[in-house]
Write a structure and sequence with these properties.
The protein is an alpha/beta fold. It contains 8 helices and 5 strands, in the order ααβαβαβααββαα. 46% of the residues lie in helices and 13% in strands.
Length: 224
């Protein structure tokens, strides 16, 4: 969800207003995905590298997260949306940990859709974490398979992403779901995240539906 700060700067506003507008975009996209029957949606919210931002901005982001989740819990329950976090919760501020844990527990029974927040997340760290967990189990080298490693990722039990969208025209992954994105399709719209509407999502999904996903095979194999 890239471009909140630039969106605010272009309007002569503090960066916090861009993040506030970005929350509204997130709400609209979650609702649209639920309407479309999309089973899994992950929003890259805060990377490990983001701790390097100004302290007041980081504090604002977590305060905003706490307010958003507190307000949206009833909506998540009403729409049967399970809430999960991809990342290390223990390193987050106490208020954020408390609210996140509460929302995770309250929505654990929901089945219509899973909403992941990649929060305090690093794709490299996720893979290293999985390797450490396999080593701690004492697995023999031949037992370290793709399936075994995937079972130690934050996304265990969830499908790999079919489509990854990065807004604002930036054309890089920035450590996002590095293992899981091996065969994902990508879209890099120029639109800044606060301006990314459900209609923008629909347009990208329409393009995605016209793509042929071959997963290493030939087009003829896929068609047969």
């Amino acid at each position: 969800m890239d471009g909140n700060g630039r969106w605010a700067t272009m309007r002569g506003l503090p960066r916090s207003e861009g993040h506030r507008a970005g929350v509204e975009s997130a709400r609209g996209i979650v609702t649209r995905c639920r309407e479309l029957g999309i089973g899994h949606l992950t929003l890259y919210t805060f990377s490990k590298e983001n701790w390097g931002r100004p302290a007041d901005e980081v504090k604002f982001l977590f305060d905003l997260l706490v307010r958003f989740l507190t307000k949206e819990l009833d909506t998540l329950l009403a729409q049967s949306i399970r809430f999960k976090v991809l990342g290390e919760l223990d390193e987050l501020p106490l208020a954020a940990r408390t609210v996140l844990s509460r929302v995770i527990a309250k929505t654990a029974h929901c089945e219509a859709m899973t909403l992941n927040l990649a929060l305090n997340y690093s794709g490299r760290e996720e893979i290293l974490r999985a390797c450490r967990r396999l080593l701690a189990k004492g697995l023999a080298a031949e037992a370290v398979t793709e399936e075994a490693l995937a079972a130690e990722l934050y996304t265990v039990g969830q499908p790999d992403p079919d489509l990854i969208i990065r807004t604002s025209g930036e054309m890089r992954l920035s450590g996002y779901l590095l293992w899981q994105s091996a065969y994902s399709e990508f879209a890099f719209p120029e639109t800044l995240w606060p301006d990314f509407t459900p209609a923008c999502l629909d347009a990208i999904l329409a393009d995605y539906c016209n793509r042929t996903r071959r997963f290493g095979l030939t087009g003829e194999q896929i068609q047969s």
